[in-house]
Amino acid sequence: MVTLMSSVHEAMRSDQVAARILVDTGAVSFRTAPFFRFTSGVESPIYVDNRRLLGFTGERRTLVAHLIRAMLRDEADVPDAVAGTATAGIAWAAWIADRLDLPMLYVRSSAKEHGQERAVEGSAPAGADVCVVEDLAFTARSLVTAGEQLRAAGYTVRTALTLVTYDTPVARSVLENADIRHISLTTIDHALAAAVSRGTLDTEQAAVVEAWLGEQRKERS
Fold this sequence. Notes:
This protein has helices at 2-10, 14-24, 57-71, 90-100, 141-152, 169-177, 188-198, 203-219, and strands at residues 28-30, 36-37, 43-44, 46-48, 81-85, 104-107, 120-122, 129-137, 156-165, 181-187. It is α/β, with parallel strands linked by helices. It has one domain (2-219): 3-Layer(aba) Sandwich (Rossmann fold). The strands form three sheets. The chain has a six-stranded mixed sheet, sandwiched between helices. It has a two-stranded antiparallel sheet with strand order 1-4. The protein has a two-stranded antiparallel ribbon with strand order 2-3. Helix 2 packs antiparallel against helix 3 (57-71). The longest helix has 17 residues, at 203-219. It is globular, with a radius of gyration of 18 Å. The termini are far apart. 37% of the residues are buried.
């Protein structure tokens, strides 16, 4: 079964592999009647819970391998260290750093108000080029905040890496303004296509999700 799964994955593009894993593990779910309701009151036909991936050992190894492959397009892309956003990016950054034998950091959204009052934990050489890792990009503001915190701590940040992105105009804009290149394994659109191909969503339901995504992208552009 493992060999068969590996062969199937090798025959597919990374974005398709990631999309199928996210759907099959329930990390990305779709529901149109009713929509999911978040604590903020926002209603959405999409629910992303990438924490579920932590319990799927084979799938997470596959995703880490694809994340590394996406990040290391050539030797110039090899970072000096990897940083995970607290808390969603920490595990992924740790697995990537371990696989590449790199220093690892993690970044809070703001500095602690006690102890050494740091926003960045861990250590890496001064001025190190650090790749920021997060599980999801919607507005991408958490990635930009992490980049700002790392730069304030004396590091260089050129690249951000995520498992999945909503591919919104605001995310593209804030990352471009922050001079951060964003690499994502897959998009919500690919996950939606995977859900339809897997039979967990029919074409009418998919049209509802697509319309909602269109509105989000329009409103946030």
